[in-house]
Amino acid sequence: MVKIAILIREETSHKCTGKGCLKSFNQKTESFARYQGTDIELVGFFHSGGDLDYKLQKMKEAGVEIIHVSTCMRAKYEGYAELVQRIGKDFDVIGYTHGSTEGKKVATLSVTGKISLVSKS
Ligand code: SF4
After folding, report:
1. Is 66's C-beta closer than 6 angstroms to any atom of ligand 1?
2. How far is Cα 11 from Cα 73, in angstroms, rounded to an integer?
3. Residue 8 CA: which ligand 1 atom is closest?
4. How far, in Å, is the centroid of ligand 1 from the Cα of 3?
5. Ligand 1 center to residue 82 CA distance, Å?
């Protein structure tokens, strides 16, 4: 069982239910297609505001191995690249959740290698 968390953009969370992220997670499509044939569990779904270091520490303690940084983070979060690198010190990171593999303006950044199954795009 691979434990996963999804990190979304705080401002977007004010009006988004997370439906797109959760649909792709549940159906193992888009950024979650890499887990076909693998048991996965969604342990956390949280936004970028507040005490993010605390939230990430809680995810680590809960055994989360991979964090998907959401597509809205890729599109609109200032400091997306720095955040992916920062989180990548403790987790494998996939830099989008649903929609196109690459962003229209921002390239998808990921940090992989800690978990062997995270090798496909
Ligand atoms: S990536 Fe899409 S579904 Fe997920 S939180 Fe952002 S806007 Fe909502």
Report:
1. no
2. 10
3. 5
4. 20
5. 20
Rounded-to-integer distance, Cα 119 and Cα 80, Å: 21
Q: Report the C-alpha gap between 30 and 48 in whole angstroms.
A: 22
- Which DSSP letter does residue 70 get? P
pLDDT tens per residue, the chain (121 residues)?
Answer: 999 999 999 999 999 999 999 999 999 999 999 999 999 999 999 999 999 999 999 999 999 999 999 999 999 999 999 999 999 999 999 999 999 999 999 999 999 888 776 544 4
The region that residue 37 occupies, defined by phi over 0 for left and psi between -120 and 50 for alpha, beta otherwise, is left
Sketch out the chain's domains with CATH numbers: 2-94 (3.40.50.2300)
With tokens 């229209």, the residue in question is 104
Nearest CA to ligand 1 atom 7: 72
Amino acid code (one letter) for 29: T
Q: What is the pTM of this model?
A: 0.94
